[in-house]
Automatic annotation (TrEMBL):
GO terms for biological process: carboxylic acid metabolic process. The active site is at C221 (proton acceptor). This is Isocitrate lyase. It comes from the Bacteria. It catalyses: D-threo-isocitrate = glyoxylate + succinate. CDD domains: ICL_PEPM. Mg(2+) binds at D183.
Amino acid sequence: MSYQEDIKALSQLREAMRGKWADISPENAARMRAQNRFRTGLDIARYTAKIMREDMAAYDADASQYTQSLGCWHGFIGQQKMISIKKHFGTTQRRYLYLSGWMVAALRSEFGPLPDQSMHEKTAVSGLIEELYTFLRQADAWELNHLFRALEEARAAGDGAKAAELEQQIDNHETHIVPIIADIDAGFGNAEATYLLAKQMIEAGACCIQIENQVSDEKQCGHQDGKVTVPHEDFLAKINAVRYAFLELGVDDGVIVARTDSLGAGLTQKIAVTQEPGDLGDQYNSFLDGDVIEKAEDINNGDVVIKQNGQLVKVKRLASGLYQFKPGTGEDRVVLDCITSLQNGADLIWIETEKPHVGQIAGMVNRIREAVPDAKLVYNNSPSFNWTLNFRQQVFDAWQQEGKDVSAYDRAQLMSPEYDGTELARLADEWTRNFQRDASRDAGIFHHLITLPTYHTAALSTDTLAKGYFGDEGMLAYVEGVQRREIREGIATVKHQDMAGSNIGDDHKEFFHGEAALKAGGKDNTMNQF
């Protein structure tokens, strides 16, 4: 419904009240409705799920149509990210938000900073989803408020053409609401616990939930050691739990991302249940490390023996009670994990790797696509990678393989600033610049995200300001490094009162009180200096 159509409908509603709503302006009410398009988190989840499904189809048709996101740990950070995207690119299309379990643990837990081991309160995850969407909805209200104020000015000036143009902008306003890919870790417990938390996340607005195949109570960050995976049957039960949560809440096209940590995980908590040779449990158990049993005396007290590839094998069990996988089987386990997840309800896969290497990722994806031709990845462009060193070493290795002289470079020291101006460094930067494009084209990556970039940007910008402000620069550190740049680069937060909703509040006061409204945005408001 257009703005004018809504005014007409509200006018009819007011007339039906026979004078009781005489002080209610249909135009003001229509304006408030336009500034609050999404009423509930489920409205958001259904809207964004449709967007994500359309984006997945577009990627299938053209791999250059990949999507991206940055991890945001606070609603304000997510809001400013989307405002910036609209300012610079004119649209939010194919740009999402990522909710990182790592950052929830490190920045949002009531226990204080925690490692990424699922020790934080599970409700902090759904709480952050709700917060992010609250700030994105406020960004809509803020942007539309400026359009409505401009509309009032155009009408007061008798500029009908400008007023018509502004009404068209209002009717065609693009929301800041975008899909969130939300990290549910390993599900925070059994399948029922996963289902309950997934419901909270969806009700808060999540259209896409990412879940990993680690043991909940042994969960580790994907870039740390000590990861323990679960048999496929256990993981599929949690995928089913998330799907049931989507279906119960009417988000029928909700998206599930199945993450495998098998490339870096050498341990499992359980031996899989198997009914017959070659079934899924038997395939999982075939990767277990162990020694062939030749005679009964080879079995000691407490040993666990399974039948593996037609032989009795004593599996290697650690003092922790965990079982060990055969060395070098990580990639094969990743491929089986991904195929199994996609064939049993997951929509996208996530492969956690130890380095950003297009060839390595493509090698696994090509094997997966032999079984699931439209397999698509969500990939972590992780800050845990030393991107500079990785790509300089990749260029070094490529040159060496080509027979090019690399004697001027020390491969182990390529991070050193002394190499910054070299041909190798320039080419490595170009490979880094093109990584997302190349990986989406060659390695099936539909969505590129950086899990915790705003953790690092907050630390870096704070360090820069603190160094100058508490040093010789004093107030100039803020003025030159922050405020002057905000003004010249058109950053909306320079008018922080407006960004926080002051002008919206003033307009509401006028709606409610008329000429008696006591407003904050008068001539003595110092925000008028900007």
